[in-house]
Amino acid sequence: MIKYDIVIIGGGPAGLAAAIEAKNNGTDKVLIIERDRELGGILNQCIHNGFGLHEFNEELTGPEYAQKFINKVKELNIDYKLDTMVLDISKDKTVKAINKDEGFMVIKSEAVVLAMGCRERTRGAIRIPGTRPSGIFTAGTAQRFMNMEGYMVGKKVFILGSGDIGLIMARRLTLEGAEVIGVADIMPYPGGLTRNIVQCLDDFNIPLLLSHTVTDIKGKDRVSSITVARVDEKRMPIRGTEKIYDCDTLLLSVGLIPENELSESIDIKMNDITGGPIVNESMETNIDGIFACGNVLHVHDLVDYVTEESRRAGANASRYIKNRIKDNSDIIKTLAGKGIRYIIPNDIRPLNLNDNLNLFMRVDNIYEDVKLVVKYGKERLKEINKKYLTPGEMERIKIDTNKLDFSNINNITVEIEKRGE
């Protein structure tokens, strides 16, 4: 049996940041387990820029951003295992893993950080009817083929879904000489960042069809055409609105799902909205000593926020094994009020808070000229004016905990109000 203080499952941006922070907080024996052939996770295939604006105050590509953390991991002599698959974790923090060089391993730890990231929703998940030809890819798979393996996935492409990866691939394909004939989204608003709508679609005159979806796929050996139709308020196709697009490739950017099979296997309580674990202010799940961070917890729009959140998980995992986390019965709930889909963290134990409490959230629709209102109990703690809110962009609210009297409240609520109310 191998023994470590903290085992981190996942060597992407979340796992790297958590490992570094745990080491910086005085924990010597830290292990990162990564199933891919190298550290860095999804960032390795994100060769576009736009990363690091918050974290480093400079614009980096995905590999450049990841490399800064990989260098630090090596500088701190943090152990890591590549091409290694975690098979099982238990409530006593025993991790079972396997790779081709060391075979089956049993690793005992004092704390575990879940940083497995997320996966893409596939055609089967959204049940598009039609034939089953080649030429249908998830956007992330197409991105890996092009940016890491050197394969061109198609020449005439349609993209379903306006998530950030799909938007970025619209630009990438265009720059490589493909014709992107359109992007459709079943929702009445885009799913990605506004900057990606502008830079990846508008700048290249690629049309965006909101409240539309693909209703049929044609082709024998390869995709030959797709049918796109407008949808109603219930997201059902409207007859008579169908339009056929000739193409050889269909990319799907229809959502991301946190990778939580391991989490669910040990009865970690899950959030129905995010698809990730329910966590407290220390990023700890309901299982004592098991923490979660990054896209395994909730899907982020900026890797800088993944880093911030994961540092908190790594630091608190280190505090946990030193018995510095206070587990008291006073728990304050964060409640998603009007217009808010979810808030992370879900539970707050006041004794573990420092000077600031960061709340991450997404809204449920597009809002203009509104304000985010933070209430604790019946008191209005904070109001933030917002010209524009969209579900595609995560919101963060920083609260000065010195202004809170936790003895008189049992919940903190965030909701949207019209300005002037």
| CATH fold name of the largest domain | FAD/NAD(P)-binding domain
Q: Give the structural class.
A: alpha/beta
**CATH architecture term of the largest domain:** 3-Layer(bba) Sandwich
Mean pLDDT: 95
Q: Poorly predicted ranges (pLDDT <50, ≥5 residues)?
A: none
Task: Give the percentage of residues in beta strands.
Answer: 25-35%
> How much is the radius of gyration in Å?
22 Å
Helix content: 10-25%
Quick one: overall form?
Answer: globular
Topology (SSEs and partners):
Elements: E1 2-9, H1 13-24, E2 30-33, H2 62-75, E3 79-81, E4 85-89, E5 94-99, E6 103-114, E7 118-120, H3 123-126, E8 136-138, H4 139-149, E9 156-160, H5 164-175, E10 179-185, H6 194-201, E11 208-210, E12 212-219, E13 223-230, E14 243-246, E15 249-252, E16 256-258, H7 261-265, E17 290-292, H8 303-321, E18 332-336, E19 340-344, E20 347-348, E21 356-363, E22 367-376, E23 379-389, E24 395-400, E25 411-418
Helix pairs in contact: 1-2, 1-8, 4-5, 5-6
Provide a brief overview of the structure.
The protein has three domains: 1-120 and 256-325, FAD/NAD(P)-binding domain (3-Layer(bba) Sandwich), CATH 3.50.50.60; 122-254, FAD/NAD(P)-binding domain (3-Layer(bba) Sandwich); 329-421, Immunoglobulin-like, CATH 2.60.40. The protein contains eight helices and 25 strands. The chain has helices spanning 13-24, 62-75, 123-126, 139-149, 164-175, 194-201, 261-265, 303-321, and strands at 2-9, 30-33, 79-81, 85-89, 94-99, 103-114, 118-120, 136-138, 156-160, 179-185, 208-210, 212-219, 223-230, 243-246, 249-252, 256-258, 290-292, 332-336, 340-344, 347-348, 356-363, 367-376, 379-389, 395-400, 411-418.
